[in-house]
Amino acid sequence: MDIKTAIHTRRSVRKYKSTPVTKELVLELLEAANLAPSATNSQGWRFVVVHRSYLDRLADILKEAFRERVAGVSEEAMRRAIKDLSLPEDGSGDRLKGLGTFYRTLGGAPIAIGVCLPRESDPWVWKNNISDAAAAIENLLLAAWGRGLGTCWLTGPLKARADMIAAFLGVPEDRELVAIVSLGYPDHQPAMPPKKDVTTKVRWVGFD
């Protein structure tokens, strides 16, 4: 798959088949992530690759993370926030409950990847580090899609339970868990969410 096709067709996947993903394939994807640009070539990202058997033990923490996430904004606000998400509904057809199931199970993904950065007190350096990690994650997402795998880039569970999740995953204290990426073969076909016309987001300077 060429890069333009990957960019245009990639979707966030929230339901996965149980088909295993090999360590060799995961490493191939992480090699792509590791090729991302970084400020001063610092390459500060580190990855924690978590197998499904271990993710099942994380379910209670993720469930509480979702409960606190909703409580922090109100159920009505959360429903508005997710209205455009391509989200498999639970058996009741309730999208919010469906999102809660995804939080708790990560959609049945056979693999999840934690992305960590060095803790940093300098706001400027931290801003650079976050940009670096975002570039690495996007490489990972596109590389996965090109190999027929789906992903979902999550930060929501970290809003209230980042330290607990990081401790569970064995993230060193000098590093901060900044994202979780679920990974596996898609078990649904997400639609593209609405996108605003790019011309409404551009300001041209010095052009005729």
Question: Overview of this structure, please?
Answer:
The longest helix is centred in the middle third of the chain and has 24 residues, at 123-146. This protein has helices at 3-9, 23-34, 52-55, 59-71, 75-81, 95-105, 123-146, 158-169, and strands spanning 46-51, 111-118, 150-154, 175-184. α2 (23-34) crosses α7 (123-146). It is globular, with a radius of gyration of 18 Å. It contains eight helices and four strands. The N and C termini lie far apart (36 Å). Strands 1-2-4-3 form a four-stranded antiparallel beta sheet, sandwiched between helices. The protein has 208 residues and is of the alpha+beta class.
Biggest sheet descriptor: 4 strands, antiparallel
Gyration radius over CA: 18 Å
Identify the overall geometry.
Answer: globular
Q: Compute the number of strand runs.
A: 4
Short characterization:
By secondary structure, the protein is of the alpha+beta class. The protein has eight helices and four strands; from the N terminus they run ααβααααβαβαβ. Helices cover 43% and strands 14% of the residues.
Architecture blueprint of SSEs:
Blueprint: H1 3-9, H2 23-34, E1 46-51, H3 52-55, H4 59-71, H5 75-81, H6 95-105, E2 111-118, H7 123-146, E3 150-154, H8 158-169, E4 175-184
Antiparallel strand pairs: 1-2, 2-4, 3-4
Helix pairs in contact: 1-7, 2-7, 4-6, 4-8
